[in-house]
Amino acid sequence: MAAEKTVVEKLENLYNLQTIDSKLDELEILKGELPMEVSDLEDEIAGLNTRIGRLETQIKDMEGEMVQHEHNIAEAEGLLERYSKQMDNVKNNREYEALMKEQEMQRLEIQLSNKKINQIKRDLEAKNETIAAAQTRLETKNETLKVKKIELEKIIEKTEKEEQKLHKASEKARKNIEDRLLKSYDKIRKNYRNGLAVATVERNSCGGCFNRIPPQIQLEISQRKKIIACEHCGRVLVDDETAGIAVAEA
């Protein structure tokens, strides 16, 4: 069974991990907002493609509906012609009235179908305009994405080896820290934008939140007998010796 690490070792291991992770954070800052911008653009492009596809399906359905109405008109016109011929051979008023009623129904059918065709034409025009606007926007987004990806790829190319090296070092450093401390470290890092979970004492203040640290607490930190967190921000505090910083001579 591995021997329990001393407080000094725990503090040194925590500060070492923080140093490595801070370098990784710097590489992420170098990338800036590009990864998020690329991801957002890809989501927008996927959304536009989905919308265009949905509109194209709707247009196809509407065109099919218009063909059906045109077929209904042709069929009604055929029936009108047939009923017109039958009018020449009616034998009584009852047959005449029945044919007149059928003709009126077919005329109404033609009128209704023409009305629906005109409405479909207007809807098609509107949807085609929407598709054209969406396609223009899609082209713009694709061009922007292309530029952003090239920018990001150039940065990644410059930093990839260093990033891989640091990730391996971070994984190795994490193995030297007990789970309880590691969970606390990760939690604190997530709480702050700069990812600083372990801070040095600078000018009698916490190097993370810059609040003043009482002399007695500073003394305890320098003694390295226990792990001490800043009472204001919760960051683990280490002295210059632990951090490997040369103390300037007074």
Descriptive report:
This protein is mainly alpha-helical and 250 residues long. It folds into two domains: 7-28 and 178-243, Helix Hairpins (Orthogonal Bundle); 32-159, Helix Hairpins (Orthogonal Bundle). The protein contains six helices and four strands; from the N terminus they run H-H-H-H-E-E-H-E-E-H. The protein has helices at 7-31, 34-87, 93-174, 179-191, 215-223, 240-243; strands at 198-202, 205-206, 228-229, 236-238. Strands 2-1-4-3 form a four-stranded mixed β-sheet. Strand 3 (228-229) and strand 4 form a beta hairpin. Helix 2 (34-87) packs antiparallel against helix 3 (93-174). The radius of gyration is 38 Å and the shape is rod-shaped. The two termini are 45 Å apart. Residues 246-250 have low confidence and may be disordered.
Write the layout of secondary structure elements.
Elements: H1 7-31, H2 34-87, H3 93-174, H4 179-191, E1 198-202, E2 205-206, H5 215-223, E3 228-229, E4 236-238, H6 240-243
Parallel strand pairs: 1-4
Antiparallel strand pairs: 1-2, 3-4
Helix pairs in contact: 1-3, 2-3
Name the shape in a single word: rod-shaped
N- and C-termini, Cα separation? 45 Å
Query: What's the total helix number?
Result: 6
Major sheet details: 4 strands, mixed
Helical content, roughly? over 70%
CATH topology of the largest domain: Helix Hairpins
What's the CATH C level of the largest domain? Mainly Alpha
Task: Please state the oligomeric state of the protein chains shown.
Answer: single chain
Tally of structural domains: 2
From the 3D coordinates, which CATH architecture of the largest domain would you assign? Orthogonal Bundle
Element-by-element helix/strand order:
HHHHEEHEEH
Average pLDDT confidence is 91
